[in-house]
Amino acid sequence: YLIVLLVLVLPSLAPLAAPGYWYDAHDGRHSVFFLQMFDAAIRDGALWPRWALHHNQGMGYPTFLIQAPLGFYVAEMFVLAGASITNAVKLAWLTGALAGAWGVYRLVIAWLNAHTAPVREEAGGAPHLDGVRLAAVAAGLLYTYLPYHFVGLYVRGALADTLLLAWLPWLILVFDRLLVRGGDPGWPRRLGTAALVFAATLLTHAFALLSIAPLVVTLVIFRLLQQWRRHGFPLRTTLLAGAAGGLALLIYAVFLAPLLVEGRYLDQQVYVADTYDFRNHFVQIGQYFSPFWGFGYSDDPAGANDGMSFQLGSVLVILALTALFQVRRAEKARAEMRYLLAVGGGLLVVMSPLAQPLWEAIPPLAVIQFPWRLLALASFVFSVLGGLALWNLLPSPLPDPRAAGGLVVMSLLAMLAGYPFIQAQLAPVEPWREDGRAVYQFEREHPDMFGYTVWVTQPFTTTALSPAFAAPDYTEDRGDAPTAGRLEIVAGQGQVLSSYVGGSSAGGVVEMETDGAVRLNVYYFPGWAVTVDGRPTEARPD
Hints:
The chain is built from 18 helices and 8 strands. It is mainly alpha-helical and about 550 residues long. The radius of gyration is 26 Å and the shape is elongated.
């Protein structure tokens, strides 16, 4: 059944096999040139990259101080295995889609098995187990073919956002096992697994701490309340859940601590203002049900003229309504269905203009930028709910073998409903798309997207390095930024003999006839180690 599921996932990824790429997607170019700079830093010896030296017309930027790195590490494995930068991004998406479908499949099986074990034993196991697996296949296909998945892949081209969908079902699954089994034998392994999966989720996207962590908290509260009603306050389970969260945060601190300490040196207002002001990106209630599809942006605060879709999908909506009507009398996974309905409904409200006072009351939420990003969570919740609703439609106490045909039909219907959205605006993969010229061209088109530090005294759109990017004979060695214009003598007499740039370093050889000063055209930032003739030397911003 798992093999069938993964094979049926592949048609949704057909554009990944095409000879082009969707560079005009919202973040399509970023997903490629961020990886290109990440790879250059890795090859330069920075095993935990922070700097991207192509940004800001060659002045660089601590991009990976604010971009969570795990998605880039996934893609980097394919680069090191020989894939091109663009193909590595595609392979990362392929991996994420398969992992996400597999995770939903496993989660639905786990929740249904918990409620069907006695009946399975009475019936000899096979028919019931087949029904459970078919329901899980249907849920996995709902998750794969949901419209927002295709928004992330082909409309936005957002690597980190889309890879979050791969982690969500596994995160809920491992925490659920930890909470349900509590202190049973094997708890250290379950504790470690939950902590690692939670940390991996947080390290995939910078906003995951603000959006995904609350989802985990709701699951913990749900399971603890269940156990409290049955057996009294579950102190040990509570401690295990807290320990898993605490360990995950300790691991996540490798990214979060530098961001909190050094993030104040960045001009962060650009990330939450104008285009990124959350007030402009709420989802109007009708947009959840609108069949509209487009490749534009969410650039209309009223929602009437948004160029992209925020629909849940017709099949998902029908199954959610089915679950709403059956939850009172559901014989299988009733508690889980109630939990998913409550969380899913809450997410829809939080993304709507009704929740604007909540977003304004909690200033850190502005970092999420787009409330509609929570569609990833809502889509996951309703996909799992859809699998449980389908299972509850089967006859009881044992499913008629003919009912399996209904699950197959629903699986195919889920695929067909998503088929119209499997489209991408393809362009040829030209060499300049995978080197510094792509960053240079983007910044020329979008001068408002320059990133500044607190040491930048005035905005700029060109630098001493711009001509090197614009030169017709531009070349790169292993992703390194240009060297021409990198070193300048600004005081005293001397000459620049040579210069070099790595993915995470820059410098060269300067011969001075008198005392003087040399400018290295890279953004000043804490953490740069400067040496002259091999000896550590103090540096200052110019």
